[in-house]
Amino acid sequence: MTRVCGPLVGFRGQEEGLWRLRIMAAYSAGEIPGPLSVDGIPVPPMPLGEVAGVALFAWDAAIAQQDEQRSISYSLDGGPQPTPIWVPGRGQTPRIAYASCNGFSVPGEMRRTGDKNVSWKSLSREHTRLPFHLLLMGGDQIYADELWSRVPGLRQFNERPRAERLAARANAAMTRAIERFYVETYCQRFTPQPIASSLASIPTLMMWDDHDIFDGWGSYSDEEQASDVFRTVFTVARRCFSLFQLQSNPDSPSWPALPGQNGFNALLRLGDLGLLILDLRSERSQQQILSPATWDVVFAALDGARGLRHLLVMSSIPVVHPDLSFAEHALDLLPAEQDLEDDLHDQWASYSHRTERLRLVHRLLDFADAQGTRVTILSGDVHVAAIGVIESSRRPVRRLNANVINQLTCSPIVHPPPSRIVRWLLERLGGQVSELDRGIAAQMLQFPGTDYRFIARRNWLSLELESGGKRRIWANWFIDDSSQPLTKVVHACEDPPSA
């Protein structure tokens, strides 16, 4: 039997003492795998769908949580070595890893990079030392940018005048070639070690960003994104994203998305920890990130969340980041940095998205104040590690820390970091305080114990939530070529001291 990708473990939520998982694997079309064994108990396969001669299957498992964390194991295709998965105990907050930007946007970068997966090796070592229960992946799990040069029909399409591109139609042969490209790209990115062993042993929650489609998707003109060829590429990318990253049938999704929306926005609850996962690509255009109707769905779900000590908001694009809009033309002059210009249009800080960002910030601050929940944003995309903060002085503080939102930016785990001159530019701009609204300010913070705000080296993040009264989050950035992680402590909301 020819397995071409997987197994990969997806997380499906915690419910009534059950830790729900979905295990996915992909095979050559026409082959049907047998049962998967979880702790010796067979689980039958479910077909998810086929694409480009590859059939994907899933096996669901609901693991009863016990008083303490424990390891369960599964075997696939009669493999001699069962794969372990760690399940947290009842009442135990899961130990979480976070990563983004798992690939290369330019082929030459791959050839120039020595150990491409050094940060994955670091994550794997830490998982062996203290197991993770969840792996959050915040965007750009693959880089599909070579689509335009590797698919012959698209290479020819790209050479045509704009008017002809807008009128062009994607034929069946082009569509099949696009499907093959995405499937091959997923297999190439998810099968090297130690990526494959990490994805097989740590349950994942993934959300896509532009490179999972192609660079800058959502920031092109309305005419281009509505064209038949662009819509065909997006439809194929969405199908493969559902299959490989969400382990879900695209025609009948099982991903725990909020009902009543066109995208994949989700809100999961793990005890008193909430995970709000924002899909910033499905509805993105130059004028919007999420549609007003989808924002209503997201905010209604958030308003219904009660009793959370912490809320982690996954936003693939940083909500807080230096405004580099003035530097767009300057970046054209910097060797190997022209691709950053596309990223500038993608930022929350771009003029067309600032109102939408402000609405999100206000609603998160309102939620934190009303519920006494500490809100923290997890982000990636920008190929540096950083700490941002949003602070409101608009009203008296009813609970300590409710008026402050930290943003933990972790990027990249594989993609090369930007050049020294880009980091220098970020540092020069990073000390500025930006007024988002009257009484609401945003800025970048220095890493505790350092004199710098940005780390231009590959990195990944661990999140350890304390048990007991304080319920602090210890956020640890594991930096390439660094012997010790950098740490930021995020305190829970607290009642103010008595007068």
Keywords:
alpha+beta, Immunoglobulin-like, Purple Acid Phosphatase, chain A, domain 2, 9-stranded mixed beta sheet, 6-stranded mixed beta sheet
Give an overview in words.
By secondary structure, the chain is of the alpha+beta class. It folds into 2 domains: 1-92, Sandwich (Immunoglobulin-like); 93-490, Alkaline phosphatase D (PhoD) (Purple Acid Phosphatase, chain A, domain 2). It is 28% helix and 27% strand. The chain has 14 helices and 23 strands. It has helices at residues 107-112, 118-129, 147-150, 152-158, 162-167, 172-190, 195-201, 222-226, 228-245, 292-303, 328-332, 339-346, 354-371, 420-430, and strands at residues 3-15, 18-28, 36-38, 41-43, 46-51, 54-64, 70-75, 83-87, 96-99, 134-137, 204-206, 266-270, 273-277, 310-314, 374-379, 385-392, 404-409, 434-437, 440-445, 454-455, 459-465, 473-479, 486-490. Strands 12, 13, 14, 15, 16, 17, 18, 19 and 20 form a 9-stranded mixed beta sheet that branches. Helix 6 (172-190) runs parallel beside helix 9 (228-245). The chain starts with a strand and ends in a 9-residue tail after the last strand. The mean pLDDT is 92.
The largest pleated sheet is described as: 9 strands, mixed
CATH architectural name of the largest domain: 4-Layer Sandwich
What general form does the structure show? globular
Span between N and C termini?
A: 71 Å
CATH class group of the largest domain: Alpha Beta
CATH fold category name of the largest domain? Purple Acid Phosphatase, chain A, domain 2
**Number of helical elements:** 14
Radius of gyration: 22 Å
Structural class: alpha+beta
Q: Give unreliable regions as ranges.
A: none
What's the rounded overall pLDDT mean? 92
